[in-house]
Amino acid sequence: MKKGINKSILFYIASVLFFIASAIGFASGNENSMAIVWLCLGSSFLCLGSTHKKKENNKTNTDDK
């Protein structure tokens, strides 16, 4: 068994925080351009988390065989 926290979980947590910051930015209504940046960063971290999770799953599947 591996010890420590999974890196993909950290990517997912970061993406949720970026999405929350984006929602706050859109709700404030002052400057939407920064909220769009937070939204793009959240989407990027979500993609990074899913690709990292897929890579880990492929690695554990080949190790089990």
Question: What can you tell me about this protein's structure?
Answer:
The protein has 65 residues and is mainly α. 85% of the residues lie in helices and 0% in strands. It is built from 2 helices and no strands. It has helices at residues 7-28, 32-64. α1 (7-28) runs antiparallel to α2.
Oligomer: single chain
Distance between the termini: 16 Å
Element-by-element helix/strand order: HH
Radius of gyration: 16 Å
Average pLDDT figure: 86
Largest sheet: none
Find the structural class using helix and strand composition: mainly alpha
Number of helices: 2
Overall 3D geometry? rod-shaped
Hey, roughly how much beta strand do the residues contain? under 5%
Poorly predicted spans: none
List how many beta strands DSSP finds: 0
DSSP helix fraction: over 70%
Question: Brief overview, please?
Answer:
The protein has 65 residues and is mainly α. Helix content is 85%, strand content 0%. The chain contains 2 helices and no strands.
